[in-house]
Description:
Alpha-Beta Plaits, elongated
Amino acid sequence: xxxxxxxxxxxxxxxxxxxxxxxxxxxxxxxxxxxxxxxxxxxxxxxxxxxxxxxxxxxxxxxxxxxxxxxxxxxxxxxxxxxxxxxxxxxxxxxxxxxxxxxxxxxxxxxxxxxxxxxxxxxxxxxxxxxxxxxxxxxxxxxxxxxxxxxxxxxxxxxxxxxxxxxxxxxxxxxxxxxxxxxxxxxxxxxxxxxxxxxxxxxxxxxxxxxxxxxxxxxxxxxxxxxxxxxxxxxxxxxxxxxxxxxxxxxxxxxxxxxxxxxxxxxxxxxxxxxxxxxxxxxxxxxxxxxxxxxxxxxxxxxxxxxxxxxxxxxxxxxxxxxxxxxxxxxxxxxxxxxxxxxxxxxxxxxxxxxxxxxxxxxxxxxxxxxxxxxxxxxxxxxxxxxxxxxxxxx
Length: 395
């Protein structure tokens, strides 16, 4: 019987997700030695020495800023995440943020907390003071959504159901996201168009070099004086300095975010929450299940789905004998792999190859057992980063 596969958990991962690894075939826990895979939530892995035996890393969430993705790519290792698994949780928090800001709920709560006296006194103080917290209703207002992936689409749909007009912008929208986008969303041609027209602006893009400080001082200055900006995506997408300048210069009415910062905490027009976006039991379960399934399918079948650094490569099994190859995206790689197999008398039953940027990945099903020498020869091909033999009989 084959040795069990080992999965190291660096954080507390939902038991619902960990149950996806069958007992007997897997060893899972926080003290696993010589792991085949690592599951992580928030722990920073950049300074961690990741053993050579590790084949993949799974992030039980969407962002992978805590994982050294480039380093893993050079080792031919996919880094999985769980896009969309926490989308409903984030959507609900965005809707809460819209209402909190539109109705001035935070200062209203602070006002009530400071009241003293008997019921008659409190009633009079409330009647005298409540006018200062008068807000606005959402129907007929315009919500600008920057980034129309799973979360952005859900937010747009929720806003439409609340009676809002929605203006969306996403120059790299996927086909799947476009299909799920409500038809009532009006397409914007630039971020500037969104921030000029919207009463509320919400951002839902990943933090990349090109999206850092995406909402900067120039774009804040284009907003309506009554505008409310929301950021439940990633810290760094919105410039804190630009927000403060906008709030103090009355180019912005409120900033609602999930990322407290020293410059923002305590400002009367900032509502900063303690990173609650995915903090629901349902989201944690969904993320853990999604990433566990992806990691297991990769370990057992070599399939890749939702890796941030590799293309999606999913090929149904048509043979007991499979080889997976991660390699640099260079010419003649398939020819060299096929030649190495042919020289050993192996017949290729099925093959699938895809690339993503500088990375490429190939799955090959063959009709007979693969000698160890073939794996060694393929691993010596220039540009090959990782090779695995995945026979069903060893699972």
